[in-house]
Each structure stands twice: as C-alpha cells, then as structure tokens.
Automatic annotation (TrEMBL):
Domain Fe-containing alcohol dehydrogenase-like C-terminal span(s) in chain numbering: 164-346
The Alcohol dehydrogenase iron-type/glycerol dehydrogenase GldA domain, residue ranges: 10-152
Name this protein carries in UniProt: Iron-containing alcohol dehydrogenase
UniProt KW DNA damage keyword: no
Matches recorded under CDD domains: MAR
Keywords: NAD, Oxidoreductase
Native source organism of the sequence: Guyanagaster necrorhizus
Length: 352
C-alpha cells in the first residue's frame, strides 16, 4: 500500500430521522445557551419553528443567508450576533446558510451547529468560500469547521426535485475529484466509491418519489460521505472552474457543478484513468464521464451553461481566470483546452 496522510477532523455527527429533537442537548453540551439561528429567506418558516423548539435558548432567527457568502451579509450578521450576545450559531439550510455560519465563526470564534438540508457537504469541511468585489476566495482553517452536525433526514423531504438532483451531483463531484486528488488515500477512495454509489442509487428514486425515506436517507448519507472526501483531500480543475463561474459570474452553485462535471471529467480522464475506472465501477458503466452525463440527462438535470444564464462571450474570461492561478490537477491546465471544455459545457455536448 502506498504511503499516505489522513487528517481526522474533530466533528460530532448525528445522523438519522427526527434527530433535530436532540438539539437542546447539543447546545447544552457545548456549554451554550443563546443561539442565533441562520436560514435563507426561503427557509425562514423552518427557522421560526426551530426558534420555537429552542424557546429561551434562541435569541433570534437571521434569514438573509446568501449564496457564495458575500462579505457584506456577514458584516450584517456579525453585528446582530454582537447586539444579541449570541454564544452559538445554528445553520439550518444548505451550503449558503452553512457558509454564513462559518464566516461568523471565522470572525468571532463562536461554535457552530450545522443542520444541512441539501447535499452540498459544506458542513463536513474546514473550508470557507467568501465573495467580495465579485471575487470568491477560499480559506481552509479548523476555525470554520462546525463542532456538531445534525443530519435529520426529515428536513430534506421538502428539497425541490431540481435541487435534489443538482445538489446530489454536486456531492458526486467532491468524490470524483477526491479519487484523482494528489492527497488521495485508501480511506477517501473507499468513501468516494460509497458516496457515488449512494447518490447515484438514490437520485433516480427521488425523481419519481421525493418522499421516499430510504432514498432520502441514502442521499443524505452519501452527501456526508462525499463532503468528508472534500474535507480531507484537495480538489482540482472541476471545483476551480465552478468556483470561478460562481464567484465571478454569479452562476448557481449546484447547477453549475452539475453541468460542468462530465466535461471536467472528460478533460482529466486521460490523466486519471484509475480514478475514472473507480467512478465508472461505482456507477456501473464503462465510461465515467459519459456515465455522469447520461445519469444527469436521465434525471432531467440542466445540461448547458447557456440555460443557466452564462453569456457565451464570458467563456474566454472564465477560461483565463481558471488557467491563471496554478493548482494540482491530473491534466495540464491549458487555456485553449479549458475554453473548449467550457464551450462543450455551454452547448451540453455529450463527452467522447
Ligand atoms: P443553498 O444553500 O443556496 O440552497 C439552495 C436553495 O434551496 C436555498 O434557497 C435554500 O433555502 C433552499 N433549500 C435548502 N434546503 C432546502 C430544503 N430541504 N427544502 C426546501 N428548500 C431548501 O445551496 P447549496 O447548493 O446547498 O449551497 C451552495 C453554497 O454552498 C455555495 O455558496 C457554495 O460555495 C457553498 N459550498 C461550500 C462548501 C465548502 O466546503 N465550503 C461546500 C459545498 C458548497
């Protein structure tokens, strides 16, 4: 077996159906008693319900979490944390809400409880992406790793079908890039295979039956496992491209991952054959990039950057940004190749 390094992260994970009921105990275990609940506007009712459950332990609900963690929203939320004297932040929602909790923790050192309701996986990582002046930068620090994650399958039942699909494919992207990461190791390899299979098995069921509890559990478990891959090894071209498209062109996170993934895989495939064979094996197909493209299509996921609102004339700028700052990736990063990748994604061409 090859030599490897694996960082075990200090996080407490509670997984199940109805687990939200344990939250008062979890706040108490942290030695806290004044929780600020965070949500997006769309999940404000859920936030209010949580506030009711917490009673005196909740200081308020802040409902303005925003995708790509703009720093002006963080400024506002930190002001409220200070004004109300909150001693813990609770993120109830997807990666956007969890991103806000992380940004608050980064500035205040407050503990966090994450209650993920999508499959993005941010709750499992010590990574924060923040956007200022249209540029998204990431930072890796244990300061932003949530102390507690409560996975409650019942909270994912309301996830709309389109978000279920794109968020699931976003999770698969973490696992795919983990398999060809420079820091790949036997543990993340195993987790990645399991995460890809779990999500690829659950999504076709959820498309037709969004309330299927077993498939919802399988998908949420897969999301945690894929998030763990993202947290422990470095990502490559795919995440870099999606990050550029999100931060600079304000493209929607999970949808962009969904559209780009088969194309970034095809770009890397000749240089990552072993990893691609593992992905193909987990999907039960012969070609990994085509397998992801076909799965995505069969689920009715968006397949072109065009339909996500990307302007064709911006593809060049995106290729430029993504090829400029160097980062580890199996295939060499050449602007012309990246531009072709983006053009394929723009038009939704099936990978060869
Ligand atoms: P999101 O959090 O923006 O959620 C999308 C929409 O779905 C929101 O309006 C939200 O309120 C709603 N929603 C979420 N769960 C729901 C549910 N169960 N029922 C009904 N509606 C629900 O989207 P996302 O894709 O989860 O997160 C994207 C953000 O997360 C991006 O900013 C991305 O950069 C970040 N992210 C960070 C990491 C990391 O490790 N730092 C990892 C993954 C994603």
């Amino acid at each position: 077996m090859k030599t490897f390094i694996y960082n075990v992260l200090p996080s407490r994970v509670i997984f199940g159906n109805g687990t939200l009921a344990q939250i008062v105990q979890e706040i108490t275990n942290l030695g806290c008693s004044k929780a600020l609940i965070l949500t997006t506007p769309r999940q404000s009712t859920k936030g209010e319900q949580l506030k009711e459950l917490l009673g005196d332990m909740a200081v308020d609900v802040y409902t303005n979490a925003t995708m790509h963690t703009p720093t002006n929203v963080t400024d506002d939320a930190v002001g409220i944390v200070q004004k109300l004297g909150a001693d813990v932040v609770i993120a109830l929602g997807g990666g956007s809400t969890i991103g806000l909790a992380k940004a608050i923790a980064l500035r205040t050192d407050l503990p966090q409880i994450a209650i993920p309701t999508t499959y993005a996986g941010s709750e499992a990582t010590p990574i924060i992406g923040q956007t200022e002046n249209s540029l998204k930068t990431t930072l890796k620090t244990l300061k932003v790793l949530p102390e507690v994650i409560i996975y409650d399958v019942s909270l994912t039942m309301t996830l709309p079908t389109r978000t279920t699909i794109t968020s699931g494919l976003n999770a698969i992207a973490h696992a795919v890039e983990a398999l060809y990461s420079k820091e790949a190791n036997p543990i993340t390899d195993t987790l990645a295979g399991q995460g890809i299979s779990s999500i690829a098995k659950a999504l076709p069921i959820l498309v037709n039956d969004s309330q299927n509890l077993d498939a919802r559990s399988e998908a949420l478990y897969g999301a945690w496992v894929c998030g763990t891959c993202l947290s422990t090894v470095g990502m490559g071209l795919h995440h870099k491209l999606c990050h550029t498209l999100g931060g600079t062109f304000n493209m929607p996170h999970a949808e962009t991952h969904t559209v780009i993934l088969p194309h970034s895989m095809a770009y890397n495939a000749p240089y990552a054959q072993e990893a691609m064979a593992k992905v193909a094996n987990s999907l039960g197909v012969s070609n990994a990039a085509q397998g992801i493209f076909d799965l995505s299509k069969s689920l009715g996921a968006p397949s072109t950057l065009k339909e996500l609102g990307m302007k064709e004339e911006d593809l060049e700028k995106a290729a430029d940004i993504a090829s400029k700052s160097p980062y580890p990736n199996p295939a060499p990063l050449e602007k012309e190749g990246l531009l072709q990748l983006l053009r394929n994604a723009y038009g939704g061409v099936r990978p060869n």
